[in-house]
Amino acid sequence: MIRRVLPHGLGRGLLTRRPGTRRGGFSLDWDGKVSEIKKKIKSILPGTSCDLLPDTSHLPPEHSDVVIVGGGVLGLSVAYWLKKLESRRGGIRVLVVERDHTYSQASIGLSVGGICQQFSLPENIQLSLFSASFLRNINEYLAVTNAPPLDLQFNPSGYLLLASEKDAAAMESNVKVQKQEGAKVCLMSPDQLRNKFPWINTEGVALASYGMENEGWFDPWCLLQGLRQKVESMGVFFCQGEVTRFVSSSQRMLTTDDEMVILKRIHEVHVKMDHSLEYQPVECAIVINAAGAWSAQIAALAGIGKGPPGTLQGTKLPVEPRKRYVYVWHCPQGPGLETPLVADTSGAYFRREGLGSNYLGGRSPTEEEEPDPTNLEVDHDFFQEKVWPHLALRVPAFETLKVQTAWAAYDDYNTFDQNGVVGPHPLVVNMYFATGFSGHGLQQAPGVGRAVAEMILQGSFQTIDLSSFLFNRFYSGEKTQENNTM
Amino acid sequence: MLKMIIPTMMLLPTTWFSKNNLIWINLTTHSLIISLIPLLFFNQINNNLTSHSTHLSSDPLTTPLLTLTAWLLPLMIMASQYHMYNESPLRKKLYLSMMIFLQISLIMTFMATELILFYILFETTLIPTLIIITRWGNQAERLNASTYFLFYTLAGSLPLLIMLMFTHNNLGSLNIPLLTLMTQNMTTTWSHNLIWLACMMAFMVKMPLYGLHLWLPKAHVEAPIAGSMVLAAVLLKLGGYGMMRLTSILNPLTEYMAYPFLMLSLWGMIMTSSTCLRQTDLKSLIAYSSVSHMALVIMASLIQTPWSFTGAIILMIAHGLTSSMLFCLANSNYERTHSRIMMLSRGLQTLLPLMAFWWFVANLTNLALPPTINLIGELLVVVTSFSWSYITIALTGLNMLITALYSIYMFITTQRGALTSHIISMKPSFTRENMLMFMHISPIILLSLNPSIIMGFTP
After folding, report:
1. Phi-psi sector, A26: left (phi>0), alpha (psi -120 to 50), beta
2. Distance between CA A461 and CA A453 in Å, rounded?
3. Where does the NADH:ubiquinone oxidoreductase chain 4 N-terminal domain start and stop, copy by copy (chain B) (predicted)?
């Protein structure tokens, strides 16, 4: 009788049980739930590590005393010296934030790798001298237990700078300063040049300076890896991420000239993870801007330069990315193995690369020819029109050469005076700079790292006085000009 | 006694029903008023317990600690105002409720007549402290720290529970004054040795004794400021208080069993003081200094002479106030620079001179400068340990020297020297902070004028 009363379909479903269906309401993912519960019970039982807080091992730590933005050679050098100069082991927590762990666009991997002491500023000479001694003793500085010693492949072939008539006097005075600082440089006349380097054409050369010791080129990637290994073994935290925000507190104060300034203090750094919206606020006491070509962006995030132009508040960090091309060519009749890195009067330069008659070189473009820094594409016409003629003039053997490859690299170019920015910012009181070296950052990295670490730990520069590289010069207008840029 | 417990319990509805902008003011005022009540207990005619009810009583050992606890609550509330600023009102009220709950259990712990009541409340104080450390601590390591804290204390105190049950079975009652009259002689048999160990372990862990002190640096460093203050000032003293209560039933075994712990305390004093010299983290330094001072209290409780008990009580009060003040100072530094490393905030005297004065006074009391009560306590303990054995003077004297060394090191590193360039702009000291420091130091100074009220059983 029931069967007649109930509606047909419903009766079927209720009274009969089809094969393959479950009874009961929740047939959703019961298997998954069981395994989750099993995992949870296992995690609470002894024997396994119990982590009740969500897993944040891919994120940087929540608190770090020093955050270094940028993991290139300058950032790692600062981290190394901070850890080396702290008087107690494990004293300071340092975090290095690097956006790209493959270093595909960083200046370090694409750099020519030269080191020379032929600068006009005594500070630059001292920095390079210290770097040379650092590199010479690199296996004492960067020794890590159970790791093989570093082989920097240092070619001590020296630098040869050529000067025309009008630059000869400047070169002489520069060499005098260099000799005073202890660099081993000598001046050569065109005859001496032809004697020593028979492949050179001394047309238009009045004077040349040749570095005899502590100059040459090395493998920058090896230095980076060595620093990275050592710094990790010293307990520095690494994190792959991008700095997106600084949380700071500010105070309005009046200077002695009754100018209203806003003093800022950065409390937190927001580090955003790659390819995700996840970010970690890292509480910090000091931020070091070692972001190389992108330092201006980091400075803008901290509020540097937000103000009426012409005031200290409104002085921006004048570091821009500039694209530089490097070309590699093959020339079997080219100069021999003793060839130094030759910097021509026209600004073109070249050096030997390897043992197979390969050379690499390029030229700093003039202001009008500056390539567009939005990408790292190489302009081969630049070599044909702007570089090759000068090379062929200087070294006749280079009239027949074959370009093998080329790449482009960013320079963290300081548009103010092409020298680095080191030290604290006057208004954002806990941001230190170690950037803007416009192409010679690699060779000055050990010295600059040590200077910044001394500034943080001891309050002032102890070994090399880099007070002329402080940020204040952008506001006061005093240029620390370097006359020997390549 | 209800005149103290009911107002403290009523602080809970005060927190929850106050308007959001009046929570701090209400709580601080009311807890200050409550802190005046234990002053009524100081005038005790005889050395016996002054009963307030059948379950709660006070005596010259309890009253100073009770006053310290009651005085500390408004200080804790004042110290927490800054870092709780950005939290939601619900969270703020929860935090304050935890502190008040802790306060209630602490008041009743110190007042308990019955040892089982004391034990229950002793364990109860763990829970709000755990919640404060885990929920409001600063870093991810706080989970580890709170686990250490909880399990060290629990593991130490479970044997105590068993012993209390055993004693109740044997003697019929665990009333403190009755126990002193009913005790049986404890001899040096194995079982009596174990009884002694079981009773004392909980308090050794709490003090902490040198070998069992691992939880303390972790818990202190990871806790928020109120947690650090209450841990350093009061919770450590629970251990001392318990030891002094229980030694009355453990005679004369204590003279025999106390040897290894006296040795550990003497050695631990020097070890932890030396560790202080090597610390980079400011809070960690103050935590190790706590261990060092409490080692003296352990020594005093185990030697069991009248002078040593006096010294222990004075030292507990003095250390409670000093340690709490040092933590507040370290916290004021941390709130400004967001780093606890001493090296990164140097030369603060040029920037915050008044705070430098508080730092100076706190470090002076920490190194037991005469005529503060810190010195009187330390001196009494050192004298009694000398009378127990001549050789200890070398170790205790060395400890006083090293204490002076690290206190001055802490002062010189943070206050003197050239100001580092990244802290030239800091928020100036708030009135609240200066008031906090003053309220820490004024009891020390006032008590230095008349320490007989905290001298315990023998004035």
Report:
1. beta
2. 9
3. 1-109
Specify the pairing of strand A237-240 against strand A94-98: parallel
Q: A357: alpha, beta or left, given left = phi > 0 and alpha = psi -120 to 50?
A: left
Sign of CA dihedral B367, B370, B372, B376: positive
Percentage helix, strand, coil for chain B under 3-state DSSP, each rounded to 5: 75, 0, 20
Q: Which amino acid is at A164?
A: S
Nearest to A88 among B280, B344, B346 (CB): B280
Distance, CA of A354 to CA of A178 (rounded, Å): 29
Is A432–B422 a contact, with Cβ atoms under 8 angstroms apart? yes
Handedness of CA B312, B314, B318, B324 (dihedral sign): positive
Q: Which candidate, A336, A330, A358, places its Cα nearest to that of A198? A: A336
Q: Which residues of B33-48 are buried (b: 16+ CB within 10 A; e: fewer)?
A: ebbebbeebeeeeeee
- B343: which chain A residues are within 8 Å (Cβ-Cβ)? 86-87, 91-92, 457
**From the centroid of its chain, how far is CA A24?**
63
- The C-alpha angle A420, A425, A429, rounded to 5 degrees, equals 150
For every residue of A137-190, which 3-state class applies, written as one string? CHHHHCCCCCCCCCCCCCECCCEEEEECHHHHHHHHHHHHHHHHHCCCEEEECH
Nearest to B8 by CA among B108, B158, B122: B108
Which of chain A's residues have a Cβ under 8 Å away from the Cβ of B416?
Answer: none
Helix, strand, coil % (nearest 5) of chain A? 30, 25, 45
By C-alpha distance, the chain A residue nearest B420 is A459
B425, A251: Cβ pair inside 8 Å? yes
CA B239/CA B119 separation, integer angstroms: 11
Please state the φ and ψ torsions of residue B78, each to the nearest 5 degrees.
-65, -40
A267 touches B426 (CB < 8 A): no
Interface list for A 80-139 with B (CB within 8 A): 86-88, 90-93
Within a 10 A sphere around the Cβ of B235, how many other Cβ atoms?
23
Picking from B339, B420, B421, the nearest residue to A65 by CB comes out as B339
- Contact between B346 and A459 using a beta-carbon 8 Å cutoff: yes
Q: Are B392 and B386 in contact (CB under 8 A)?
A: yes
The enclosing H or E element of A261 equals strand A260-272
Residues 6+ apart with CB under 8 A from A225: A150
Report pLDDT for A90: 66
Q: Which residues contact A147 (CB under 8 A, 6 or more apart)?
A: A229
Please name the member of B280, B338, B418 whose beta carbon is closest to the beta carbon of A285: B338
Q: How far apart are CA A405 and CA B248, in angstroms?
A: 90
Give B166-183 as a DSSP string: HHHHHHS--BHHHHHHHP
B426 chain-A contacts, CB cut-off 8 A: 265
Q: Do A429 and B421 touch (CB under 8 A)?
A: yes
Residue spans of beta strands (DSSP E) within A273-318: 279-283, 286-289
- C-alpha span between A322 and A409 (Å, rounded): 8
Residue of A nearest to B134 (CA): A53
For chain B, domain boundaries: 1-41+56-177+188-454
pLDDT tens, A298-355? 999 998 988 888 888 888 899 998 888 899 999 988 888 888 999 988 888 899 888 8
Of A281-285, B48-52, B202-206, B308-312, the least confident: B48-52
Decide which of A319 and A57 is more confident. Answer: A319
Please tell me which residue of chain A has the smallest CA distance to B282.
A91
Strand partners, A360: A328, A351
Q: What is the pLDDT of residue B425?
A: 80
Q: Are A75 and A95 in contact (CB under 8 A)?
A: no
